Amino acid sequence: MKKAHIEALLENNSRWAETFAADNPGIFDALAAQQNPAYLWIGCSDSRIPANQVMGLLPGEVFVHRNVGNIVHAMDLNCHSVIQFAVDELQVSDIIVGGHYDCGAIKAVLSKKDYGMMNNWLSSIKDVYNNNRANFALIDEQAKKDRLCELNVIEQVKNVCKSDEVQRAWARGQNLCVHGLIYSVHDGRLRDLNCSVDSNDALEEIYRLKL
């Protein structure tokens, strides 16, 4: 990136900081003192979906983890470290898996193209497709993409709930709920996929930890 590009970003930041401080007196002092978010957002890296803005929240009100395809892999130490910190240290009350329509990861899976290292990362979405083949039998290509976006969010909600950090929180009586939302880049709206979970009772028995 050219230095001029960085200078432009710094100028943008200066204008934003001045305007934001004027619109929200004392906000930076409050943020410097602590962060106390109620929500953890696990979303896609897509540049069109900034977590704070789409939920109408200010800085400091949502803890964020993002990756390609809003995936929660069992062996992803980065993601699970974020979940543990959010649950144990920040004591968030809600974890939101936030997917979106027109997702590049979903398009990549359905294209069946070779994406190199990304093939391994996207394999879990391929499993979602394979395990739900009946959902795709009689619908067109756009509907397939949209439905796989939704099913992927629902699957990642399950993966969050399977995690030991979330199950430990439930075992000690912590008030914690996991939700699945999906965002439309066409109208800016979030939609509830009605897959919220607030205890491990909703998990298949093999995934329930004895804590």
Automatic annotation (TrEMBL):
Record has Ion transport as a keyword: no
SUPFAM superfamilies given in the database record: beta-carbonic anhydrase, cab
Cited Pfam families: Pro_CA
Binding site for Zn(2+): C44, D46, H100, C103
Root EC class: lyase
Entry keyword set: Lyase, Metal-binding, Zinc
GO biological process, one term: carbon utilization
Cofactor remark: Binds 1 zinc ion per subunit.
Reactions catalysed, as given in the entry: hydrogencarbonate + H(+) = CO2 + H2O
Transmembrane residue ranges: none
Cofactor(s) in the UniProt record: Zn(2+)
GO molecular function: carbonate dehydratase activity; zinc ion binding
Family indicated by similarity: Belongs to the beta-class carbonic anhydrase family.
Task of the protein: Reversible hydration of carbon dioxide.
PANTHER family: CARBONIC ANHYDRASE
The protein's name: Carbonic anhydrase
Species annotation: Cardiobacterium valvarum
